[in-house]
Amino acid sequence: MSDDKVCVGALAGSYGVRGELRVKSFCAIAEDIEKYSPLSDESGARQFHLALIRPIKNGFVARVSEVATKEEADALKGVQLFAARDQLPSLPDDEYYHADLIGLVVLDTGGAPLGVVKSVQDHGAGDLLEVQRPGSSETVLLPFTLAAVPTVDLAAGRIIADPPDGLF
To answer: Burial, 25: exposed, middle or buried (Cβ in 10 Å; 0-12, 13-18, 19+)?
Structure first.
């Protein structure tokens, strides 16, 4: 994935028989996904001009001008939608796009490596950093709180963590 794009949603298949799509939004304000149109796929080869029609459970019904039939909509199931980074709002100092955290090196407060951020997960009780241990396929879920992660240095590509006892 290019650094100039951020994943803001995904197409979840067709809705009805007229080429409408189910769309999942990953935006903090879910409806904002429409503001970033046209969106592209991960490669940037396809663009999607998205218009939200109505909310549904776990997303929205949307019309994409490039899709006219149910079969075309079904073929797009699972396609991630990306917006240009310069279209997105700038964030306060203590907030980060998930895409910016993935790949950062995680060090403890003494400078010892704990691993690399593999993914950012949210199961409803707050964000968790999935940290892959050095030289292993083992991962650890680190709470993404100020207490457990006091420093995020995007410019240096690292996170300083003070994990709860026994986590690592």
So the answer is: buried
Residue 53: count of CB within 10 angstroms of its CB: 13
CATH topology of domain 98-161: SH3 type barrels. (2.30.30)
Alpha helices in 2-142 (DSSP H): 70-75, 98-101
Q: Which of 99, 119, 124, 115 is nearest to 159 (CA)?
A: 115
In this prediction the pTM is 0.74
Q: Of the CATH numbers 3.40.190.150, 2.40.30.60, 2.40.110.10, 1.10.10.1100, which one belongs to the domain with range 5-87? A: 2.40.30.60
User: In terms of Cα–Cα distance, which of 19, 20, 50 is closest to 37?
Assistant: 50
Q: For 6-62, write each residue's pLDDT tens digit.
A: 899 999 999 988 889 999 998 888 999 999 989 999 998 999 999 999 999 989 999
Q: Evaluate whether 23 touches 33 at the Cβ level (below 8 Å).
A: yes
Rounded to a whole number of angstroms, the CA Rg of the chain reads 18
